């Protein structure tokens, strides 16, 4: 009888840990992927606007304020349904900076997010924030731009592992990233080489669940390094412009951690390549219609992701 009780308690602790581990791992992935691009503040490629898009089983909403505003904002949301699980992720950024010189901007940003995952009867959700400094710069003699940020924060979360009770737990988070991008204008094409490095950690604190069981702490660490080469080409003529774009990128990602996180290995872990292709057609002075497609997972044995996105953009 005592051994049966011990086995039940051990199972509850393990399944709760597994659910929380998957949650913080997926959230760390979202946090890296949703980071706003900052080099456009100097290169001129950043513009305010609203972008609505959808693919099969997935929808997204993106909003960015005008880069001319002293306080800039960016918000995005995504929803996905794979049949066995549902995910919701909302992300926002508020930032401001000042020009130290014509080649360097220094600023600070506050990011906040909301995440919800449902797998069967289990539901996990959380709200969090990270904040810290950033810089954006360009070389004086070449069209090469770079950006860096270092952000720290926390999150408050709830876990309902079996659909019968709800627990609360907290985490500490850290994010660091560096990106560099250049532009080479040739006669018919513009080539855009880039390199980036990102790191994020999410440290879940130990807690006691509603049944009195001790749920150990665990930590996820995730990193990503990428090399890319993109291109742009304007086509057609007349009053409305059309822009073709594409990119080939090589990505190497890794994750590590403690607790049940150490047993999880995402299918995208390791090295892989990705191809993107898109077309953007100007509908008017402040609006455009675009379509894009991608395949991610070239060279990966157990991972492949592809999609088509059609979106309408309205700038202001």
From TrEMBL:
Domain Autotransporter: 64-316
SMART domains named in the record: Autotransporter
InterPro entries, alphabetized: Autotransporte_beta, Autotransporte_beta_dom_sf
SUPFAM superfamilies: Autotransporter (SSF103515)
This protein's name: Autotransporter outer membrane beta-barrel domain-containing protein
């Amino acid at each position: 009888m005592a051994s049966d009780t011990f086995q039940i308690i051990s199972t509850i602790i393990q399944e709760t840990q597994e659910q929380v581990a998957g949650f913080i791992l997926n959230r760390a992935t979202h946090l890296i992927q949703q980071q706003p691009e900052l080099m456009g503040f100097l290169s001129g490629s950043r513009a305010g606007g609203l972008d609505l898009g959808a693919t099969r089983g997935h929808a997204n909403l993106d909003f960015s304020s005008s880069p001319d505003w002293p306080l800039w904002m960016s918000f995005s949301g995504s929803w996905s349904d794979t049949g066995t699980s549902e995910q919701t992720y909302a992300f926002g950024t508020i930032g401001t900076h000042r020009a130290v010189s014509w080649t360097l901007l220094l600023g600070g940003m506050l990011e906040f997010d909301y995440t919800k995952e449902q797998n069967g009867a289990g539901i996990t959700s959380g709200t969090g924030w990270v904040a810290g400094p950033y810089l954006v710069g360009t070389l004086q003699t070449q069209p090469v731009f770079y950006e860096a940020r270092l952000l720290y924060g926390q999150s408050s979360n709830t876990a309902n592992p079996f659909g019968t009770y709800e627990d609360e737990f907290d985490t500490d988070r850290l994010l660091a990233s560096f990106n560099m991008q250049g532009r080479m204008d040739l006669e018919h094409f513009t080539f855009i080489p880039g390199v980036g490095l990102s790191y994020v950690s999410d440290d879940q604190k130990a807690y006691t669940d509603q049944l009195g069981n001790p749920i150990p702490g665990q930590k996820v660490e995730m990193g990503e390094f990428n090399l890319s080469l993109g291109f742009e080409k304007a086509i057609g003529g007349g009053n409305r412009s059309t822009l073709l774009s594409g990119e080939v990128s090589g990505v190497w990602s890794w994750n590590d951690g403690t607790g049940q996180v150490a047993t999880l290995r995402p299918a995208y872990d390791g090295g892989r390549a990705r191809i993107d292709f898109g077309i953007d057609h100007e509908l008017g002075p402040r609006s455009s219609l675009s379509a894009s497609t991608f395949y991610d997972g070239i060279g990966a044995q157990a991972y492949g992701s592809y999609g088509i996105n059609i979106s309408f953009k309205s700038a202001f």
